[in-house]
């Protein structure tokens, strides 16, 4: 699991950041850059969700794997371990399969994924 460093400087969430747009992919709000072609790299966001502006600087597809419920460090009653119980890798895995199928239906031929958050990304 990642250390407390990931929470020491949380992003200011901004659903309007960057030049892409938000659309539904497999039932999830997903940020897509304006330059989609036949390749896609879905980014599994960290605990702060898909509205973190720096995520939108880098990649083509950022699905809302937190389902509108990103981690909030100001909510003392919901620590990261508690938040993770509702946002585990088992749920994320099933959603990821749906995202991949939705991207394929849009004509994407090469699809890969990355994450920056160890708790989700280190369990293959």
Account of the 3D structure:
- The chain is of the alpha/beta class and 124 residues long.
- The chain has one domain.
- Helices cover 23% and strands 17% of the residues.
- The protein has three helices and seven strands.
- A three-stranded antiparallel sheet has the order 1-2-5.
- It is globular.
- 25% of the residues are buried.
- Residues 119-124 have low confidence and may be disordered.
- This is Dienelactone hydrolase domain-containing protein.
| Helix amount | 10-25%
DSSP strand count: 7
Poorly predicted parts: 119-124
Largest sheet: 3 strands, antiparallel
The domain tally reads 1
Question: How are the strands of the biggest sheet laid out side by side?
Answer: 1-2-5
Structural class: alpha/beta
Alpha plus pi helix count: 3
Shape: globular
Protein name: Dienelactone hydrolase domain-containing protein
Organism: Glycine max (Soybean)
Topology:
Blueprint: E1 21-25, E2 28-32, E3 39-40, E4 43-44, E5 61-63, H1 80-86, H2 89-105, E6 110-111, E7 114-115, H3 118-121
Parallel strand pairs: 3-6, 4-7
Antiparallel strand pairs: 1-2, 2-5
Protein name: Dienelactone hydrolase domain-containing protein
């Amino acid at each position: 699991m990642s250390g407390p460093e990931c929470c020491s400087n949380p992003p200011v969430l901004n659903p309007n950041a960057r030049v892409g747009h938000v659309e539904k992919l497999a039932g999830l709000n997903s940020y897509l850059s304006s330059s989609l072609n036949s390749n896609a790299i879905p980014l599994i966001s960290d605990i702060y969700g898909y509205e973190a502006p720096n995520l939108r600087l880098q990649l083509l597809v950022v699905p809302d794997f937190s389902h509108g419920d990103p981690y909030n460090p100001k909510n003392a009653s919901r620590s990261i371990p508690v938040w993770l119980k509702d946002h585990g890798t088992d749920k994320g895995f099933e959603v990821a399969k749906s995202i991949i199928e939705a991207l394929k239906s849009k004509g994407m031929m090469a699809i890969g994924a990355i994450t920056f958050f160890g708790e989700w990304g280190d369990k293959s």
